[in-house]
């Protein structure tokens, strides 16, 4: 019998950090690239991520437009940015007390970040719209779907307690 306790492995931040950076790049690309193309009477029209938000706003549904924009794009983008900041700081393994507010914000923002719900809505809309006009998903949609997937992977690998232990060590642990 070995009376010595087994050493506890230090938390690893590389995988969720890589997923967060990947999600951040893909979400920015999704915002810039066409989401879908619909053809009507021989004329093709590109739709972007914010096209639906702009339509809702023009029709007077500004509250719904803000909710879709916030939960479908701004919150996931903010969450992945915060995850990159927090996990990058934890990866450097130096105390960063200034990031305490960022950690609290990331935990709260995760509740509002719903890219997977928006993806489900887009799939339903494609199914319904394809019966009326020919539609084709474009690069923005694929980037958004992959960005949503990597956001979920990054959050799944993110442990706020481990990050807090590295970024905000107890005063007696720093001596």
Describe this structure in words.
This protein has 175 residues and is mostly helical. The protein has a single domain, classed as Butyryl-CoA Dehydrogenase, subunit A, domain 3. 63% of the residues lie in helices and 7% in strands. The protein has 7 helices and 3 strands; from the N terminus they run H-E-E-H-H-H-H-E-H-H. It has helices at residues 14-32, 51-58, 62-92, 100-110, 115-129, 139-157, 160-167, and strands at 36-40, 43-47, 135-137. A 3-stranded antiparallel sheet has the order 2-1-3. A hairpin with a 2-residue loop joins strand 1 and strand 2. Helix 3 packs across helix 7 (160-167). It is elongated. The mean pLDDT is 87.
Distance between the terminal alpha carbons, to the nearest Å? 34 Å
Note the overall shape: elongated
Largest sheet: 3 strands, antiparallel
Strand content: 5-15%
Strand order of the largest sheet: 2-1-3
Low-confidence spans: pLDDT under 50, at least 5 residues? none
CATH architecture: Up-down Bundle
- In the CATH scheme, what's the topology name? Butyryl-CoA Dehydrogenase, subunit A, domain 3
Quaternary structure of the protein: single chain
CATH class: Mainly Alpha
Into which percent range does the helicity of residues fall? 55-70%
Count of DSSP strands: 3
